[in-house]
Every structure is written in C-alpha cells, then in structure tokens.
Amino acid sequence: MHKVDPKKRLGQHFLKDKSICERIANLYGSQAIAPRVMEIGPGMGALTEYLLKRPELDVWCMEVDDDSVLYLDLHFPALKGKVIFGDFLREDLTPIIAGEKMGVIGNFPYNISSQILFKCLEYRNQIPEIVGMFQKEVALRLAEKPGSKTYGILSVLLQAFYDIEYCFTVDEHVFSPPPKVKSAVIRCVRNERETLGCDEKLFVQVVKTSFNQRRKTMRNALKPIIHHADLPFLDLRAERLSVDDFIELTKKITEAKKTAE
User: Fold this and answer.
1) Do 99 and 135 reside in the same domain of the chain?
2) Among the three residues 157, 190, 223, which one is the final residue of a domain in this structure?
3) I want to staple 84 with a disulfide (CB 3.0 to 4.6 A). Which of 23, 62, 172, 243 is the partner?
C-alpha cells in the first residue's frame, strides 16, 4: 500500500508540508513533561515521521481509519504494537495511559477538534500537554484572553486547566485536499490548578449559560440559575470575566443557595 486516500466522512486533510510537520513535532515536550505521546489520527504518518526522529519520545498512535492503520504498520516498523485502531472520543483511555503521563498531539479533524479537547479535559491529570492543529478561528478562541468577542466557552473551560499558546498559522495549500479555511497550531500545557475549588458541574453551567447570551449582562444571562442580587460581576458581560472570576462567582452562587435553604 503506497498511499491512503483522504476520506471526507472522517474529515481527513493530510498535511503534506514536511517543514510544518517537523515544526509541530518539535513543539511538543519542550518542557520534558511527558515522554509518552499519543498522536491522534496520524493518517500516513507525516507528523509521526518527525516524532519518531526524537529518541526521547515514546510514540503511540490512535487511528480510526483501517487503511491508515495498515499503512502505518507497513511503513513504520518502530510503531509495532503501538498503533491502536480506535476512536479517541469513544475509547476508555485509562488502560492505555496505565497510570502514566501521556501527551496528545495531532492534525485533528476539525469537525471533532473541540470534542477531542473535552476528552483530554476528562483526563487532564494524566494529559499534561496537547499540541494540535485546529481551524484557525477555533485556535484563536482557545488562546484568547478576557475582553474579546473571540473569548468564549472553550476559552474558559480549557484555560481553567491549561495554559494555551497560539503558535503559528497554517495556509490551506499545505493539505491534501486543501480545507476551505486557514488552520493554526496551538500548544496547551497543564497549569498548576489541581481543582477548581468550586462545584465543577455548576462552574460549567455558569460559563455556558453566560456565554449563550453573551450580549446580556451576567445578571440577565444567569436568571435561570441565580435568584440573588448580591453577587459579584453581575453588571458585566461574560467576555469580561477571567477563569478566576468565574470560579469566584460559582463559589458565591453555591454559598447563596446554601444560605437560602
């Protein structure tokens, strides 16, 4: 098997520019956080090739396309026993991680890139670093700071546990087939926040509810959740609040509910 044809149903756009592949591979692990790394959706191994050139890394791959799995098995003998045929979004990662730290890297299919990040969030204490290719507007949103219209739900939920760096923009022509949008690479490194220190389920609800009506002040957007006027940040819009602000607000909502009971 000499090549794998990109499958539209899997959202495959194979990266063909070797210099960009090398640049992405070298972004990972610059802080030596986790030598073990899982590449999601390696395709024909354009990025894999450069990850394998780093002897300090223990490279694994997960691929949902059986043609790509066969290709990798034939062309990358160094990966013997380390190519997992499976869907990252559906796999139980516990036996795969096996108590170790494991980074995640990949040219992610854009239709599931956000879901991949949320899956990583579930295993955030085992996944200290994520390096990935995303649609440019998603990458910008993830890395954005408070005060911008780009800043939103993804920004807050990911930045609660990861420091996010927008690394570089990638043009359409370096892919086969070319996507209709520009792409970008970001790097997420686990921060020192072990827990949020508040009701995490409520925190997510507060963040999502706030941004779902982002033109309204927090007071109006959060009417389904809060019934108390004496809370911080209510006169602001969601985009003005930092992660720490959302954590503080969640704590205050919890306290107010307990007082009311």
Assistant:
1) yes
2) 190
3) 62
Other C-beta atoms lying within 10 Å of the C-beta of residue 245 = 17
Helices (H), 144-199: 153-159
pLDDT digits (tens, 9 = 90+) for 80-116: 999 999 999 999 999 999 888 999 999 998 899 999 9
In a domain, 77, yes or no: yes
**Residue 241 lies inside a defined structural domain of this protein:** yes
Q: How far is CA 125 from CA 88, 203, 242, in A?
A: 17, 19, 22
CATH number for the domain that contains residue 206: 1.10.8.100
CA angle 26, 144, 107 (to 5 degrees): 35
Q: What is the DSSP string of 95-136?
A: HHHTTS--EEEEE--GGGHHHHHHHHHHTTTT--EEEEEEEH
pTM value? 0.93
